[in-house]
Amino acid sequence: KAMAAPVLVRVGGSSLPGGFWAAARVWLERPQVANRRLCGAAVEAEGPVALGEGAAGAGRLLLVWREAARGPLPPPLRPWGSAELHALLRELLPRGRPRAAPARELAVQDVYNGTVTFLPLEENSEGKYCIKKSNIYQIQLTHVKDEEWSVSIVAPFPEDWFSDGIAYPKLAWLENELLPKLAKWSVEQKPSEFKNTLSLLSVAKYSKVYQDLKEKYREMVKVWPEVTDPEKFVYEDVAIAAYLLILWEEERKEKELTKKQSFVDLGCGNGLLVHILNNEGHSGRGLDVRRRKIWDMYGPETRLEESVIMPGDSHLFPDTDWLIGNHSDELTPWIPVIAARSSNSCRYFVLPCCFFDFHGKYSRRQSKKTQYREYLDFVTQVGFVCGFHVEEDCLRIPSTKRVCLIGKNRTYPPSEWAVIDKQITQYINDHRTCADIGCDRRVGFNLNDHSDGVCREAGSELPENEADTAGTIWMPGFQPREKLEQIRNCASLPRDFVDDVVLKVANLLLNATPQKSCPNMHGGNMNSWNQG
């Protein structure tokens, strides 16, 4: 019995059937984009499988497939249409607490027949997987005529369907929510500028760590003393902490390290990320030009320092394993440089947000990319120049700027460091755009000026903290953030003054006397209006 009428899809060119398989891949690998009660899917195994006695596969996938291939598919499912199929064993991961048990499925793609069949799995008392027939369903692509196709979902036993409200919503949800999305994705699939979310980590492991941390630090939302949105900032830092904890755990396994990694968070802001990482056993500290009220709430175990960071020889961290740049603004492109020059083993993690070059606001160099993509490519290139293998991933955080860049491994042996260091210096000098308009070497920028490429005079006075170390600064004239955050709107003006100005302007407008006549729409009587 078909659950719903097929959704017709009409598209020119060659979008289908290729777009259908891309859409199916989204539902297979990232079901959370449609089903918000899932946090993702963990693909346990996948590969080609064959019908008949010669069925081949690997490990658990082979065992499950042999069970699935024993008999024909129940109607109205289309039978397997070719001898070679592609199977994927996945685990659906529920979101939230208390955590529901994950659900396992075997999904079988039949390109020849235009189907993806989903076979839910149950574990019996002997520890073997068997198919839960009540929740079998199949996504079908059908060529109607010319450029017209249809996408449909069918279930052979709709009257027995069991909905747990999480991994298996009601059949009506598949009909009204999933089916239209699949049809839409089939014709709108475009190559993304970015990697899939959490492409470098185990989604299952991330989900568990994130939920544990969220539960542990949820009280921070209630006592947040800053003016910023507590839910956004608390859960964003919890998510970043979960990512780093798993990244570092995997690194310890890979390199057989016994001690947890140390870190320095450059431009740590509210300090919550440092607080969480310290609490989870990682030694480290956070530096920021401006102290925040919330710092006093963390206690002495959380190391936060009010300090101006000037990229130079006096701000290296030779004993630190990782440098973190979480929305580090003007320090973002410098973090790979600082990591490279701190030691041969220092690594970095940056989450770029605002666009800064080495000397000031980042100026776009091409219009074919989005500004965000172009800036990410720039920071990635900085990492390559500094001798890092740079990896990119997309975090699961409540922000439009979710792409992180990670420099874990070097591209050169330690003996070649002098060559790399010279390469870094040359690259920084080549990217001083102020030189293009005739500025002297000692240039800087003003973070309070939102125009691009505004240079200071060569003889301008250096800040006191910079003058002490001018000989060691890599970019003379570099201007860090100001300690006092300047307010650029009327928020700090006395309320009575603002009300008085508004009233005077309103009275001037209302009392304006010049009148102007104009014909109405139909060319009849002249209408008067107050042009004030």
TrEMBL record:
GO terms for biological process: tRNA methylation. It catalyses: uridine(44) in tRNA(Ser) + S-adenosyl-L-methionine = 2'-O-methyluridine(44) in tRNA(Ser) + S-adenosyl-L-homocysteine + H(+). The keyword S-adenosyl-L-methionine applies. Its main location: cytoplasm. It is found in: Cytoplasm. Keywords: Cytoplasm, Methyltransferase, S-adenosyl-L-methionine, Transferase, tRNA processing. InterPro entries: tRNA_uracil_MeTrfase (IPR011671). It is an enzyme of class 2 (transferase). Coiled coil: none annotated. Belongs to the TRM44 family. This is tRNA (uracil-O(2)-)-methyltransferase. The gene is Trmt44.
